[in-house]
Structures are given as C-alpha cells and as structure tokens.
Predict the 3D structure of the following.
Amino acid sequence: MKIVLKHFKDNEQMLFLVGPRQVGKTTIALYTKNHFQEGRYFTWDSVKDRTLILQGQDFIEKIFPINKLRSFKPIIIFDEIHKYRDWKNWLKGFFDIYKSYFHILVTGSARLDIYKAGSDSLMGRYFLCKVHPFSTREIIDPNINIQEINAHKEIDQKQFENLYTFGGFPQVFLKHNKLFSNKWHSLRKKLLFYEDIKDLANIQEIGQMEVLAELLNHQTGQLLNRTTLANKVRVSAPTISRWLETLERFYYCFSITPWHKNVSRSLIKEPKIYLWDWSIIKDPGKRFENFIASHLLKTIDLWNDMGIGHYNLHFLRNKDKREVDFLVSKNNSPYILVESKNSPNANLAKSLSFYQKALKVPFAFQVYNSDEYIDKNCFKYTEPIIVPAKTFLSQLV
C-alpha cells in the first residue's frame, strides 16, 4: 500500500500491479481507492463494467466530467483488462487523453509486462509493481521500507510456522486451516488452468499441462531437463519450453539462471525451477529451498521496481560440482551468496568460501531451517556465516 501511494504521489505514469491469482491485488487496489477523495473500480469480469469500457475511453467523462475543477486527481482502477483483446491500444489511448485528470491503476493475474498483442507499445506510460505472497519481513512489519537491508527483528513463532506450512497467499495464511487450505488449492488450480491459461493462452492440452505442473512440484531446485519432461508428458521438447513459459507468465513457477561470469568450468545452459507457492511441495528440503528462493525473488523484485538498482537471482554450479543455491547480483556484480540447509546441524558448505573468494562477493550465508532466532545483524559479517532463517529473512523484504 505504501509503495502504491508513493507511486501516485511521485509519478503520472500508470501503475501496473501484477502477480498470481488470489495474491491480494484487488484488495490492495480497493484499499488504495479508499485513500483518494474520489475513484472508481472497473473489472473486465463484470458485464456492466465491460460494457462501459467497450463504449470507448470517453465513457469516464460521464462519471467524472473533466471540465469540473478539482483540487485532486481521482483514481481509476482497471482489473483484469488484459483479457480484452485490444487492451494495450485501449489503455494507451486512455492514458494519453486522461493522464492529466486521473491516476490510473491496472491490475492483472497474467504478466501485463510481456503480453505482446497489438503493435502499439505502452513503453514509458507505466511502471510495474509485482505483488508477491506474504514474506517473513512483511508479517513482522507490513509497512515495507523502500531500502535494501532492514533491521533484524523477530517474527512470532506461530506466524512463521503458518507461513512455512500454509504459504504466503493471504487467505490460506490467515485461515491456517488444513481443510480450508486443501479446498483453496484445489479451486485455485482449477481456475488457473481451466480459466486463465486455457482461455488466455489458447492451450487445449490442459490435462497434459497439469501433469507438467505436478512434475515441477517434484523437481524444485533441480536443473531443468526439457527432454526428460517431454518424454514423461508425451509432448515435444519445444512444447515443454512453450508451456513452461506460459506457467511462468501466469505465476505458477519461476526460473533462475546460472551465473557464469568469471566462473571457470561453469554450467551455462539449463535453469532451475521454483514454484510461487512453496506450500504444495512435499519434500522438506525442496520446500525450504523454495521458501528461501521465493523470499529472495520478492526482495529483488521490490528493489528493481523501486529503482534502487538492477538486481537478478541466479545459482552457481560448475563442472566440478561446486555449487551454491543462490546468488543475488547487483548491477551485474555478485552481491549475496545464499546456501539453504533444511538441517541446522550441517557444516558450513565449502563452496560458499570458494565462490566468495573467487567472485569477491560481499556477503555469504548458509541459511538453516529452525525455530531459532538470533538477535544480530547478519549483514555486518563479511565472512561466510551460518544463520537461522528467521534472522536472515527478517532483514529482507
């Protein structure tokens, strides 16, 4: 909320609020509207609102006459408008005509930034803000500070357990009930595959794509092998590539690529896959690794969206099988190394020291899964250290 309000205070561009289905985008949009003296919410899923939108951009003048003197700009919210085939041209026209009269917020559960339908570009007319599931830091303090590293602070143990067990999607986290969680996940999966993906991506083999999604649940954190997946799903490798791109577009999974700059004998081909919802992963080690990956992705997305710098998430692995789960790069240089360990008793991984020295990485952490919290700033240490997840994650976003 704080980030959205700051955007409209500082910019005239539209704000695109994007993220997975049921992550809370509409809730954020409606709360935002309540902070303005006037505003309207329109969703493409409403026949009434759709009819208004299809009348043309000037329908808004019947609701907010632009010849009326105001001391403020009302906010106009368009939800799921990317389902309209000509949505880009429509929004481009709306913004060009009314940018001086209204703040414009656009939300959607597909990647508004990579939809390429139509020839006109919205470049320069919008900024993007990605909405992620709840994180450890957000539960500690919902008013996220727009900075890199936060002060360490302990999260309530029960809330941390609920986050790890039920995931960070608002409804299941707040309910923290196993029966509700099972029903919620079943419904969300059905809506994702049989409404969003089938309708918007024009994919007919939804049953086989569901098989692919289930296989990804078991391959979290592993190097992606498209040929193996293609054989199991009984489609071609190019089809697997296309379906993986679709699943990423609709926020089912995300991939990270290997960092190979200045790494001798590095592996530079296949990425690793993680899920947006870590709670559906059964294997404890893979779930914890995905839990850490999701927190890192949320952190770098906010840093990028807020213009703090240019960040990316990678992993390290060479042909000698020296590997580290995650490397956060900052402005194309290594910044943070993170190795995840489900056990608190694991020795410090030798690869952390090896890569920190080889790549001159400022910070290196081995993050372990436990109830422990240590009331110290782990980012003041420049040598590789072993740190509990509750401490490390409290200093991110």
Summary: The two ends are 14 Å apart (CA to CA). Residues 178-200 form the longest helix (23 residues). Residues 80 and 255 are 25 Å apart (CA to CA).
